[in-house]
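Final report, closing paragraph on structural work. Over the funding period we assembled a curated collection of sequence-structure pairs, and we close with a single example.
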Amino acid sequence: MQRCLVILSQLDQTEVLLGMAAQALSRIRGMRRIDVLAAREPPEQSLGHIGFSDTQAQTLRASQQDWADALHTRFQHWLAQEYGAPADRLGKVEVNWLDPEITVDRIIAGYGKDADLLVLGFPDSRDSAQKHVATRAAIFESGRPVLFVPPFWDQPSGDRVFMAWKDTPACRRAFLAARSFVGAAKAVEVAVSATDPLPLDILPGLTPTQQQLADTRNIGQALLDMAGAFHADMLVIGGYQHTMLYSRLMGSVTDYILANPRMPVLLQH
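Its predicted structure, as stored:
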């Protein structure tokens, strides 16, 4: 991994997400670049392509620019505290601020697919419809691991990693992405089922503790409880094994975990 993309949304979560990106940069060998994206929504994306006036468009653009400027102020303060003056950062780390007016599809095509790791806040009821769409696109369309961070998170992440194993392509990709974190972890535990043992080659060089997942009535809650008992500071899961229609009808472990933030979650579809 070389490049981390932080996608900002809520003002009060800015420092939490930036701090997580800085942690990733310090823990992952070879990572030297953080891009911070405050994507301003085009008026036609929020208001529709017809039925809004120039005045409405100008008002929305001004509101979006105020939002991006407020985020940028917090970003500048964090950057100075975390890495010092620009001269101090030369040759050590590259941190870029990006606040384009951009559609969701271009966020993923232009930024997400070029990153090695995406850092986002958990889905928030205050987010706009377009920001919820961007979260889904980050999961389904970027092809990259996504690290979701709770809004209250104020401690290191990656020392105690809890991983949920299921032999699916998504889970294998998630475990592969997690190798950058678990290699430096102090303790790793994996939830397995009796019918789905952990392959010997999935975490080379590691011998994690394994715990049997017994409660299948609410797997999402069971995983959160097991991770909590382990005092995990990161949960690794493969996301959305079923179709979205199945998830809407029957529920989804991934949806449940994303709706109940307890700790950072590394997810890959």
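Confidence is low (pLDDT under 50) at residues 245-250. The longest helix spans residues 54-83. We thank the funder for supporting this effort.
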